[in-house]
Amino acid sequence: MSVARILEKRTHQMPGRLKISEYFFEVPLNHASPHDGSLRLFARSIERFEKPVDVGKAEAKHLPWLLYLQGGPGMPCKSPQNYGWTEKALDKGYQILFLDQRGTGLSSTVTEQTLSRQGAFILGGLAPLVEQPDSVYQSLYLKVAERNQSYYNKYPEDVRRVKDIVHYLQTEKVDLPSGGTLSIARLRQLGIDFGFHGGIDSVHEIVLRMASDLNYFGNFTRPTLAQFEGMQSFDNCPLYALIHESIYLHG
Length: 251
Description:
Blueprint: E1 5-14, E2 18-28, E3 38-48, E4 65-69, H1 86-91, E5 95-100, H2 112-118, H3 134-154, H4 158-171, H5 184-188, H6 199-216, H7 222-230, H8 238-243
Parallel strand pairs: 4-5
Antiparallel strand pairs: 1-2, 2-3, 3-5
Helix pairs in contact: 4-6, 6-7
């Protein structure tokens, strides 16, 4: 297998005594046939920034690597300091590599425009770890119920707000700023944020805005609808819509 070639590396110190390095790699499009073209991949690494007392006697530390692959599929990694678990991993002595998988983020990004130049290729992430998706979804159902309960335990006032929003959507057609309709099913899709760090608070914020609009204006304002729409936009992550379910396929 061909080894990735580092094209560029830049390192910066960040608040909280963190050191982040940004890498661009060149890798073969097909590792089995390395002369059939290449791709550019992007990754960020993070570790603790430690300034030695005596620079002349400083010794390089070789910390173990922890590789993070964003589970999208089809989405890039956020900046390392924006993940809630980063500090815990660093405290355990790791340096972490956040890799934008091919076709996502800055790794030979897949869009309608770039596909015509790069040619089509399939991104599926890691191979399935189960024979069928049933076991995954059965666990997911339990987790979704648990996260919903956590949300309403933290923001019990949102129980009434969500019911009011649903009642309004049952009787009124709501058009979103860039097209499409705000339906009850689409409202429920806000729950995807429960899987992200800070997602419960993000859902509360939009529910609060929507309920406030109904109470004061009797309808949703454009800024509120734009914020809602922005929470569910996959325009910049087309691979998510294309392969979210098909990653479970075999063969």
